[in-house]
Amino acid sequence: MPGQNTLIDAMDRLRAAASCDQRWTMATALLGDIGSDWITAGTTSRRAQTALAIRTSTPAALMRDYLAARMLLDDPWMQHCAATTGLDMVAPGAPRGTATRLPVRQTQLFADHGIKLALLVPCYGGARPGGIVLYARSADAALRMADPGGQAEIRLLTALVAAHYRPEDDSSGSPERYDVHALLSDREREVQLWLSRGLQSAAIAGCMGIAPVTVAKHLHSARRKLGARTREQALAIAVRDRLIAI
Most C-beta atoms within 10 A of its C-beta, which of 38, 63, 171, 217? Predict the structure, then answer.
């Protein structure tokens, strides 16, 4: 457990940071001091996993591989954060049954990038729950992050970080900042965009060069994916979660 002076110092350092960039830099330093080589902070909508806001200090190649493989579509960690505050972790290469519920291909991605252990700490609440993932690349750091005493310290520090930094509020323009729109297809987003401009199904069909029945299918699919009851509610969610730009 960190001492009181350590926690006060961490809080003071985060409070003194004047910008999102500075708070993020401080967060990576604080968690780096306890053995995390990289960190990722992510939040998403509680109603549906529609728009994921991410900032990460992992190498660009790791994030590129994650996005290229569309792993967000079957990544259970965001749903985990919405459902519980319990930690979850994966140790690539560990015997079967000792790791997490993560898909095999995601565990393999971590292994390919030299990660010995990845620890998920749910620490964001409200309408956009989420968490912070810490990555250990050495055996010593992995042991520390897997130890209950080390995890207690990690919980406290990530809670402090989460109180001062949320990735969806980060407007720094950092190349480490991503908005990932996982669920809506290009056609579904286009239909939502035309709908936001006040067009009805027949007019949307004319603009897109498709049949009105196809427009109706896209609207129905978007409602289902966004967890909405009406097309108006689906549009409101799409705008709120920045799935379309109006």
Answer: 38
CA–CA gap between residue 181 and residue 52 (Å, rounded): 6
Q: Are 57 and 65 in contact (CB under 8 A)?
A: no
Q: What is the pLDDT of residue 7?
A: 78
Can you give the pLDDT at residue 4?
67
Instruction: List, for residues 140-153, the tens digit of each pLDDT value.
Output: 999 999 999 999 99
CB 134 within 8 A of CB 31: yes
Mapped onto helix, strand or coil, the DSSP state of residue 133 is strand
Q: Please, what's the largest Cα pairwise distance for the chain?
A: 66
Tokens of 214: 């196809």
What is the rounded distance in angstroms from the CA atom of residue 110 to the CA atom of residue 119?
12
Which tens digit of pLDDT belongs to each residue from 161-216? 999 999 999 999 899 998 876 667 889 989 999 999 999 999 999 999 999 999 99
Q: Is the pLDDT reported for residue 3 higher than 80?
A: no
| CA pair distance 229, 142, nearest whole angstrom | 45
Which residues, in sequence order, are CB contacts of 63 under 8 Å at separation 6+?
A: 54, 56, 178
Nearest-angstrom CA–CA distance, 143 and 138? 9
SS3 97: coil
Please identify which residue in the block is written with the tokens 């960039």. 21
In sequence order, the 6+-apart residues with CB closer than 8 A to the CB of 137 are: 37, 114, 115, 116
145's CB contacts (< 8 A; 6+ apart) are 35, 36, 89, 117, 119, 134, 136, 151, 154
